[in-house]
Amino acid sequence: MVADTSSAVRLPSKAYAAMAASEDLVPWDFTRRNVGPHDVLIEILYCGVCHTDIHFVRNDFGMSMYPLVPGHEIVGRVLNIGDHVKKYKAGDTVGIGCLVESCRECDNCKNEQEQYCLKGSTYTYSSPEKGGDGFTYGGYSNQIVCNEDFVLKVNDKLPLDKVAPLLCAGITTYSPLRKWKVTAGQRVAILGLGGLGHMGVKFAAAFGAEVTVLSTSASKKDDAMKLGAHRFVLTTDEGQVLASQNYFDFILDTVSAEHDYNFYLSMLRTHGVMVCVGLPSTPAVVPAFNLIFHGRSLSGSLIGGLAETQEMLDFCAANNITSDVEVINMKYINEAYARMEKSDVKYRFVIDMATL
Ligand code: NAP
Ligand code: ZN
Ligand code: ZN
After folding, report:
1. Which of 33, 51, 72, 159 has the smallest set of CB atoms within 10 Å of its CB?
2. pLDDT at residue 309, rounded to an integer
3. Which ligand is nearest the CA of 139, by number?
4. Nearest residue CA, atom 23 of ligand 1?
5. β-sheet bridge partners, residue 320
6. Which DSSP category does 68 fall into?
7. 3-state DSSP call for residue 111?
8. From ligand 2's centre to the CA of 56, what distance in Å?
9. Substitution site in 254, 261, 264, 276 for ligand 1 pocket (most atoms within 8 Å of beta carbon)
10. Alpha-carbon distances of 275 from 32, 171, 176, 230, rounded to whole Å
11. Is residue 66 helix, strand or coil?
């Protein structure tokens, strides 16, 4: 069915939203823009809970806009399309990650790196709507409208609740492991075994590396091995840490809270690379000495572009890789946040949107 694309019409929608930084999420009724000629209207089936959602709800980065509807690990079904939409039809299974628009003209957009759009990408929530006057609202909601170019194809042979986290946790770990060419014969550490970390373990193992989990939680050792790790280092145990000095070619740092980067840099071999994807809100202090004397590199990485996200989803479908999830009722969201802040999730909460 082709939608009525009148921009005067708005779509009544339901969500859970934070009204202010210090408050719990609560039910919220609002409207979304109508389906434009290049837009797709999606019924949201599942939405993963990323730690970035918590950072934004708590205004950790000082850039949140309220009411704030979090959620950027979205899987759903196409309900309706605009009359110029080419890629999708009603009934298709699709996904949306962290991006819903970009300028499409800058060097980075032209090079399939929309996440680094030089004019500023439009994020799935708490971001100014491109060409509109409001803000974007994310996936803790019954439906969403998105330009077809920012919608991903999802293979519906995979369990869709377990696919949802691939849209952020998946691409955020896949992209740096690919960029730095992680492969067999390399020693790779995944720092922090949460939503991102457990996907990092699965990808690094699938790419053939020797994988070590660096964790503060002794209770996660057995899980780490089941997820595909070969070694587990409890970072509060001095003996285990000493045995990993100058050991790794590559460390993927997924830690969400303040931590000492130097402690982990010391585990890199000469010319080793540590890539930060975790986003503590406090700045790190890294003396140049700790990089210079072993020729070590410290880098960062933001999600991935649209083409690479599709490549990752296709790789997961071909290799039967999905996320380990705890499916929750929408009403459980505030407890889920509290548990994630205590590193207590195995390994991603995913909201069943039928419970909204
Ligand atoms: P998560 O599921 O809560 O996992 C974070 C893990 O970090 C915890 O499970 C814990 O693992 C470890 N950790 C927590 N506090 C720690 C501390 N003080 N010291 C050492 N380790 C600690 O979070 P997530 O959803 O994976 O997200 C992780 C971070 O990545 C967040 O900051 C998020 O905003 C960011 N992020 C970035 C991007 C990007 O594009 N760069 C994309 C998505 C998310 P152990 O129990 O194993 O120690
Ligand atoms: Zn995320
Ligand atoms: Zn751009």
Report:
1. 159
2. 98
3. 2
4. 51
5. none
6. B
7. coil
8. 10
9. 254
10. 37, 14, 7, 20
11. coil
pLDDT in tens, 107-160: 999 999 999 999 999 999 999 999 887 999 999 999 999 999 999 999 989 999
Does the beta carbon of 195 lie inside 6 Å of ligand 1?
Answer: yes
343 touches ligand 1 (CB under 6 Å): yes
CB 124 within 8 A of CB 100: yes
- Nearest atom in ligand 1 to the alpha carbon of residue 300 is 41
Closest CA to 325 of 351, 306, 304, 305: 351
| Structure tokens that stand for 210 in this block | 């020797």
pTM, two decimals, is 0.97
Q: What CA dihedral angle connects 263, 268, 269 and 272, to 10 degrees?
A: -140
Ligand 2 being an ion, which residues bring their Cβ within 5 A of it?
50, 52, 168
Taking CA atoms only, the protein residue closest to ligand 1 atom 35 is 278
Ligand 1 touching residue 168 (CB < 6 A): yes
Q: Which regions of the chain are under pLDDT 70? A: 1-5
Question: Tokens at residue 287, please?
Answer: 């003396």
CA atoms of 142 and 30, how far apart (whole Å): 11
Write the residue with the smallest CA distance to atom 30 of ligand 1. 278
Hey, what are 103's tokens?
């300028």
Contact 15, 355 (CB under 8 A): no
Q: Which residue has the tokens 């309220």?
A: 66
For ligand 1, whether the C-beta of 198 sits within 6 Å is no
**Ligand 2 midpoint to CA 12 (Å):** 26
303 Cβ inside 6 Å of ligand 1: yes
213 within 8 A of 199, measured Cβ to Cβ: no
Q: Which residues 6+ apart lie within 8 Å of 201 measured at CB?
A: 190, 193, 211, 213, 224, 227, 228, 229
Q: What pLDDT shows up at residue 4?
A: 62
